[in-house]
Amino acid sequence: LFGHLCLEKSEAKCTYGTGAFILANIGQKPIASKQGLLTTVAWGYKGRVDYAFEGSIFMAGAVVGWLRDNLGIIRKASDTEAMATSVPSSEGVYFVSTFQGLGAPWWQNGRRASIQGMSRKTNGNHIVRAALESVAYRVRDVVGAMEREMGMPCKTLRADGGMTANHFLMQFQSDILQIPVSTGTEAEVTALGAAYMAGLAGGVWRDAAELAGFVAEAKRFYPQISAVAADELYDGWLEAIGISAKEIT
Predict the structure, then answer these.
(1) Average pLDDT over residues 152-175
(2) Which end of the chain has fewer CB within 10 Å, C or N?
(3) Predicted TM-score (pTM) of this structure
(4) What's residue 14's pLDDT?
(5) So what's the pLDDT on residue 209?
(6) SS3 content of the chain, % helix, strand, coil (to 5)
């Protein structure tokens, strides 16, 4: 979170690795979440402590690994982008990747995974696309809970991790969140944040404002579908995981 310089309230980041890990700055007052999130210390510096909401998703890159190792419909992770973009949509297919249960903010342990909405026209490309989309839906689950808890929107999601190389996923993430998603040029943002903190503590930089010049954006993705279309897709996801509208108020 500090490596992305998410220094203001509601600024958020997601690390897309084996799982996906979302943090949002909630300012200097800790809030006990009622939305299934964790409240954690973001950082402390010169007597000031900032807090964050955290939500973890168990399956992100691991979903792609399952497609390769268990289902055998891809040879390598990089195949997924071309396969996903070879079809105009997932044709109503939802990949519920709850191989290890459903984490934040729903917390349904022991839930089995499923692929729903298939027809005789469904092929491997639709399944791959739905698998990637499932990661974006899960991130919206968490970001949505954070926004409801904070009472304010996340204006941008800053992204890092191996899956950011998949431009289809990043674009769909922006579409389904209806906010820009930005990726950086530095892969090891956790180490970068630690270096920033060490430099501040050691007097290399006077304050965090000096660090802004070190942040290089690789690409920024903007929503390419309407909010209505995004909500319709997400409503289908909620139906697939069995979550009612009453549970997200």
Answers:
(1) 96
(2) C
(3) 0.94
(4) 97
(5) 83
(6) 40, 20, 40
User: Within 10 A of 242 (CB to CB), how many other CB atoms are there?
Assistant: 12
Are 52 and 32 in contact, with CB atoms under 8 Å apart? no
Q: CA 51, CA 2: separation in Å to the nearest integer?
A: 11
Using left for φ > 0, alpha for ψ between -120 and 50, and beta otherwise, residue 110 falls in left
For residues 211 and 180, the answer to whether their CB atoms sit within 8 Å is: no
Bond before 105 cis per omega within 30 degrees: yes
CA torsion, ordered 10, 38, 230, 116, to nearest 10 deg: 170
- Cβ atoms of 20 and 11 closer than 8 Å: no
Whole-number Å distance between alpha carbons of 26 and 23: 9
Pull the structure tokens for residue 5: 């310089």
Full DSSP string of 78-105: THHHHHHHTSSS-TT-EEE--BTBB-TT
